[in-house]
Amino acid sequence: MEIERQFLVENLPSLPTEYETLRQGYVALEPEIRIRQLGDSHFVLTVKRGAGLVREEWIGWIYFDYGE
Length: 68
Known about the structure:
- There is one protein chain.
- The chain is an all-beta fold.
- 0% of the residues lie in helices and 51% in strands.
- It has a 5-stranded antiparallel β-sheet, with no helix packed on it.
- A hairpin with a 4-residue loop joins strand 4 and strand 5 (54-63).
- The model has no long low-confidence stretch (mean pLDDT 88).
């Protein structure tokens, strides 16, 4: 289950100087199904269902080996 939270801040925090590249694509919008690629062979499948501040959420890892 995901609980959406929002906060008001007085000043924006400083951004990190280093970061990891992330690719994301949506498979469907209702329920929300998306795949994120982290690195060369790690993928995360996320399914979110519902609306409002509380939604059901499922996260699964997909490992892919391109082979040689």
